[in-house]
Hints:
The structure holds 2 protein chains of 2 kinds.
Chain A: H1 3-9, H2 13-24, H3 35-81, H4 83-89, H5 93-107, H6 113-142
Helix pairs in contact in A: 3-6
Chain B: H1 3-8, H2 10-16, H3 23-31, H4 35-57, H5 60-77, H6 87-109, H7 118-124, H8 132-139, H9 145-154, H10 161-168, H11 172-197
Helix pairs in contact in B: 3-4, 4-5, 4-6, 5-6, 6-10, 9-11
Amino acid sequence: xxxxxxxxxxxxxxxxxxxxxxxxxxxxxxxxxxxxxxxxxxxxxxxxxxxxxxxxxxxxxxxxxxxxxxxxxxxxxxxxxxxxxxxxxxxxxxxxxxxxxxxxxxxxxxxxxxxxxxxxxxxxxxxxxxxxxxxxxxxxxxx
Amino acid sequence: xxxxxxxxxxxxxxxxxxxxxxxxxxxxxxxxxxxxxxxxxxxxxxxxxxxxxxxxxxxxxxxxxxxxxxxxxxxxxxxxxxxxxxxxxxxxxxxxxxxxxxxxxxxxxxxxxxxxxxxxxxxxxxxxxxxxxxxxxxxxxxxxxxxxxxxxxxxxxxxxxxxxxxxxxxxxxxxxxxxxxxxxxxxxxxxxxxxxxxx
Lengths: 143, 199
């Protein structure tokens, strides 16, 4: 119908019929052919984003733990081995200090407090490495 | 195929295809982390959801965007779907919410399309050249949100009053009152529109 014909109908009860007819006569349109593919693509990206968020969280937590662990290990070394003195007096003595600790440990494990410190530091270092590598292992397992 | 059979024999699901499962079973599969199940839900409901979005947005490209957003929102909220209504009812609710949010956002910002799409080109034509029924349909977008929603869902084919009441989470009496007021207000809006463009 031309617009003039429609305009002629606009009076009284026919107005409501006009509105009703316009709303009821709207056809159902087919969805675009690529709508499904676009939705599934975006869902994959959303899934990937969530996995990346979790992976990032694990990585950052591990790095933070490693950082604190390294600081703690360094503080213990300084406190129990007078490492600051070694640094102040020159590094060449450090190798000798290590030999000294190793000999003390072999001679008398229980009477030398530094004997406990050496394996404790080694265990702490191993733990830090494991904490840093754990998220990587988890990621490689799931992918 | 029942959900129990699908859970105990996942191979059967893959062999038979997701098309044999009903919506609720597909939702359960999706909630368990099966993306293919949700893909099947999208395939089943994409036409209706696109049409709901089109009746709000009145533009093909915008309707497609809103339909995508609705499905994505549904995927994110799927874990909260309790099954107290059908999946289609729940999807209508999500789609209406997405479309109305977008329409309100556009009204607040006064946004217009930079490059009109083919559908929108019809909108920028002089009003007297636009099809009269389409002009009337566009007036629905000028109603308050809940009236626009009621009118849109009512005239969408295949949706009953009961389902609309479930979508809008109101009693039937309230829905009928809204419907009456919506028609009355729509008539006022159309009356204001038509004399202006009939000049």
